[in-house]
Amino acid sequence: MSWKRLLYVLFVILVAGISALSGAIAGGVAVYSAFQKQPSQPITVLQATPDESKTINLSTTQINTTITQAVEKISPTVVTVVGTIPGQLTIFGPTQDQYVSGSGVIISSDGYILTNNHVIEGTSSVSVIFADGSQVDVTIVGTDIYADLAVLKVNAAIPGVAGLGNSDTLKPGETVIAIGSPLGDFKNSVTVGVISATGRSIDTGKGYQLEDLIQTDAAINHGNSGGPLVNLAGEVIGINTLVVRGSGFTSDVAEGLGFAIPVNTAWAVAEQIIQKGYVSRPYLGIRWQSITPAIAQAYNLPVEWGVYVADVFADSPAARAGLERGDIIVRIGEVNLDENHSYINTIFNYSPGDKVTLEVYRGNKRIEIQVTFGEMKS
Questions:
Q1: I want to staple 218 with a disulfide (CB 3.0 to 4.6 A). Which of 84, 129, 193, 249 is the partner?
Q2: How far is 287 from 308, CA to CA, in rounded Å?
């Protein structure tokens, strides 16, 4: 390359550099001038103040459902029942007192409380704890072992009275609420489920069945016994009484098999207890033993189902009617005693003073005996 061409290239580069520098200076001056013409303004930084950073805005929307309304209505009437079972004197010395607990519900403005018989059975003293935590002593007005019900009386101001529904109109699938104190510690716990079935029977293993029970999958645990089963109107439609975890015929474990006594039955029993101090039931006056096919085969009996008369009490309706020790009763009225019709539940279909015909086997001879029921005070 000649020196002239080299000189020309250097000149071009120099001119381009000066032009670029001049443009940058001119732009900077223009920007500076623009800022000088604007009024002075502080630069704003978006940052929460210390107080604003601690403020949390919560929604005040009222979540008020049918279930919450029913619970609010019934909760003040639900109580925790606490009882003391006195210690026993044994060959090793006296045992300590035991404490039991369950639930109950206030059913009268006079202070009557409904609970289960098995909650207070064997107790020497009973008290109840209201929803607000206050505790008062109560008296046992009366009990009925066959319905597993008991009525208590509190002589103090009560927080409310439960409304009673109609258990005869219940249908499977209806939503129900169970309220009680599971394990005695978790007071006024609420569980929700449905009515699984009505008209259920449970064998107590004591020669009679609890009949016409309400089955529900609402969780019922130890301590819920005696508490109310409630509909969506906040009305008591049952008294929770037991839960079945499994069967003696299988190792399977079931969940959601809770049972309650229909409130119509419970109220009928409670009315008698309040008025009389006991439940009036028909009385025959025998000591008896159930007969099943296995027992019949073992002892070569002439029938597979019935009750064996082990003893006849003196001056009882059975004695006056001519029943004898060794007789086997197989029918009461029009009902044959069998797997689904126990002796106790069958005679409970009658009232004291009713006359009925018994079908009896005396040896291998079938006879009929007329009997008039007396009154048994449960």
A1: 193
A2: 9
Please, what is the average pLDDT of the chain?
84
pLDDT confidence of residue 40: 47
pTM: 0.74
- Pair 259, 216: CB distance under 8 Å: yes
What's the alpha-carbon Rg for the chain, to the nearest Å? Answer: 40
Q: What DSSP designation does 184 have?
A: G
Question: How would you classify the pairing of strands 125-129 and 175-180?
Answer: unpaired
Fold of 281-377: Pdz3 Domain (2.30.42)
Contact between 225 and 240 under an 8 Å Cβ cutoff? The reply is yes
Those residues whose C-beta lies under 8 Å from the C-beta of residue 152, and which sit 6 or more positions away, are 81, 104, 112, 113, 114, 115, 120, 126, 128, 138, 139, 140, 141
* Pair type for strands 235-243 and 163-164: parallel
Q: In angstroms, how far is CA 324 from the centroid of its own chain?
A: 45
Nearest one of 93, 92, 123, 151 to 276, comparing CA atoms: 151
Lowest mean pLDDT among 1-5, 27-31, 257-261: 27-31
The set of catalytic residues is 118, 148, 225
pLDDT tens for each residue of 260-311: 999 999 999 999 999 999 999 999 999 999 999 999 999 999 999 999 999 9
- Nearest-angstrom CA–CA distance, 103 and 129: 9
Q: Mapping DSSP to helix (H, G, I), strand (E, B) and coil, where does residue 125 land?
A: strand
Give the CATH fold of the 166-261 domain: Thrombin, subunit H (2.40.10)
DSSP-assigned letter for residue 124: S
Q: Which two tokens stand for residue 146?
A: 């066959």
Helical ranges in the chain per DSSP H: 3-37, 50-53, 66-74, 117-120, 263-276, 293-298, 317-321, 343-347
Contacts of 337 (CB under 8 A, 6+ apart): 305, 306, 307, 329, 330, 331, 343, 346
**Least confidently predicted of 26-35, 187-196, 305-314:** 26-35
Question: Quick one: pLDDT at residue 216?
Answer: 94
Question: Which tokens is 51 given?
Answer: 């107080």
With respect to CATH, is domain 68-153 assigned 3.90.180.10?
A: no
